[in-house]
Design goal:
By secondary structure, the protein is mostly helical. Helix content is 68%, strand content 3%. Strands 1-2 form a two-stranded antiparallel sheet.
């Protein structure tokens, strides 16, 4: 009697390994890197060549429109991109504030306070957003602060942020006495002085919102801490 032993072979399908995407090469992040490069380049000209400095500065700011559009259109929204976007905005503006502080040393304390306040409010808001699993510090849940919800609507955000930039730019160009004279209502001033006075109320409004943002974000972080403590105590 012949016994035939049949060996069954367990054939496995070859696994195809998909390489993980390199988020640093995502289009919106490449735009973000370009913004950083342009912002850094503007620093070399801020003290001596205001036109060149502001062309580089505003090109960097203008690209902010396209990185968000690219992120949505290409489905390439990332946490890294959100952080890079915020840091690009903050760092370029803060460098301009520092330059203005050098031009107007008698106002060094207000400029320093603006820097501290700006960094603190945005850092608190970004950190609270990440703690709650959001992808951008600009996303405000309907259950949260109404002031911030309306502030981060695109038209309002654009107007207040633009006014903030124009206010500092008015201070910057006024130092170089650049701009033509404009007469209105019996007053004659440089166009940058007019821009500074007109943008000032919106500038202050933006920083009032920043104060609200700071306290709202602090409350959100405290709520996360409270929930964490309650879970540990159970």
């Amino acid at each position: 009697t012949t016994t035939t032993t049949t060996t069954s072979l367990n054939l496995k399908k070859p696994q195809t390994t998909m390489s993980s995407p390199n988020i640093f090469l995502f289009v919106p992040n490449l735009i973000g890197f370009a913004r950083v490069f342009l912002g850094i380049a503007s620093l070399f000209y801020m003290a001596s060549s205001p036109i060149v400095a502001m062309v580089l500065y505003w090109t960097s700011a203008f690209l902010d429109v396209f990185d968000g559009y690219a992120a949505r259109a290409l489905n390439q929204s990332t946490t890294f991109g959100a952080v890079l976007d915020m840091l690009s905005d903050r760092c370029t503006t803060l460098c301009l504030i520092i330059t203005c502080a050098q031009f107007y040393p008698e106002y060094i304390i207000p400029f320093q306070l603006l820097i501290v306040f700006d960094i603190s409010s945005h850092w608190f808001q970004m950190y609270s957003s990440l703690l709650q699993g959001k992808t951008s510090h600009k996303f405000i849940d309907l259950k949260e602060n109404a002031v911030l919800r309306y502030y981060y609507m695109k038209p309002i955000l654009f107007i207040l942020c633009s006014a903030n930039e124009l206010f500092f730019m008015a201070l910057y160009f006024s130092h170089f006495n650049i701009g033509f004279e404009v007469s209105f209502g019996g007053f004659s001033m440089s166009v940058w002085h007019w821009i500074g006075y007109i943008s000032a109320p919106l500038f202050f409004a933006k920083h009032v919102v920043g104060l609200v943002q700071l306290f709202a974000a602090a409350q959100n972080i405290a709520l996360v801490d409270k929930e964490s403590i309650e879970k540990r105590s159970k």
